[in-house]
Amino acid sequence: MTLKLALAVIAAVIFLLVFVWKALLPVYAFNYLLKRKDPDAGIFLAEDMRAAAGASVPAPHPAPAFAPVPCPAPEAKIPWIDTVDREIAEIWSHDGLKLRAYFVAAPEGGAGTVILAQGYSGNGKQLSAFGRFYYEDFGFNVLMPHARSHGSSEGRYSGFGWLERLDYLRWAGWARERRPGARIVLHGLSMGGAAVMMAAGESPLPPELGAVIDDCGYTSMEEELRHQMKARFHFAGSSLLKAASRVCRRKAGYSFEEVSSVGQLRKSRLPLLVIHGEEDNFVPFAMAKVLFDASPLPPERKEYYPVPGAAHGEAFTANPEMYKKRVAQFLEKVFSEGVWTPELKLGPQFGG
């Protein structure tokens, strides 16, 4: 091989490596993280529509590429939402997607309405255990949406909480119309926790929206992805993430840099409860205190609940009774501060 040919081969290899790194790998990373893994699921509700029409229910979809949040009700083989009378709610997102949710109406209108925000790669049933205690113990109406690009809601790409923040505010508007006068709580897990914190920073907010509860949400998309890159591949991958962010801006309409729970909380005036497992290595436990401190509210209007021994998404299963107690105490304080209208009839657990 002549020197000229060797140099040409080396140049071609370098060009190929740069092309892969600069062009192909960012697109792969974007698709790996954010592209829908079940592209047909948004067309129908498998159990609710196709089965009712006599069609066979499709086989489960392949496991998602990114690690899912564990279901917080391992003791329940059948999700609570499948054991109660519920209706299927539908809304349109700001960008034209049909979003669907389960709604369970509490007797006599309910003391309030909770909107439960699922984690990454889950679906509307994921927080059934939460829905159950809100309904049975607190007397709340329960709205359990399928996040965009998850479950039976439409969408090609996940918003990692950023696009979903606007979806949950639309669901809050739906809840206002469905249960006029009932006050609204946003309660999210993991990506859902980030989404509801980001929703809290929007303005204006529905006047009935009175509190936000985050369970193991992340500070920002960039920080969470950097943490995952280091944990899985042992390098920060900043240049790769920046390139994937540009792909995301082109394909999904937002950049990684925009997705910040901390930035949104700094603008929020909603009462906040931050819950996080102390053994969480997926969304680092240290993020919880950063989120709590980001809220400009005085200490009496925000709370911090670290859960000993709990890994990611397991704060409830680690101690269900304490979890419910802390949530109830937080909401009781929110009620008593006058955030909620005095005409609201509260259940006995809130001093009504």
Architecture overview:
This protein is of the alpha/beta class and 352 residues long. The protein is 39% helix and 14% strand. The chain contains 11 helices and 8 strands. Helix 9 links the parallel strand 7 and strand 8. The chain is globular and about 85 Å long. The C terminus is likely disordered.
Order the strands across the largest sheet as they lie in space: 1-2-4-3-5-6-7-8
CATH class: Alpha Beta
Number of domains: 1
**Would you identify the CATH H-level superfamily?**
Alpha/Beta hydrolase fold, catalytic domain
Could you tell me the mean pLDDT? 82
Overall body shape:
globular
SS strand fraction? 5-15%
SSE sequence, one letter per element:
HHEEEHEHEHEHHHEHEHH
What count of helical segments does DSSP give?
11
- Looking at the structure, the CATH topology is Rossmann fold
Report the major sheet.
8 strands, mixed
How would you describe this structure in keywords?
Rossmann fold, disordered C terminus, alpha/beta, 352 residues, 8-stranded mixed β-sheet, 11 helices
Brief digest:
By secondary structure, the protein is an alpha/beta fold. The chain has a single domain, classed as Rossmann fold. 39% of the residues lie in helices and 14% in strands.
SSE topology:
Layout: H1 3-34, H2 46-50, E1 87-92, E2 98-104, E3 112-117, H3 128-136, E4 141-145, H4 162-178, E5 183-189, H5 191-200, E6 209-215, H6 221-233, H7 238-252, H8 261-265, E7 272-277, H9 286-294, E8 302-307, H10 315-318, H11 320-336
Parallel strand pairs: 3-4, 3-5, 5-6, 6-7, 7-8
Antiparallel strand pairs: 1-2, 2-4
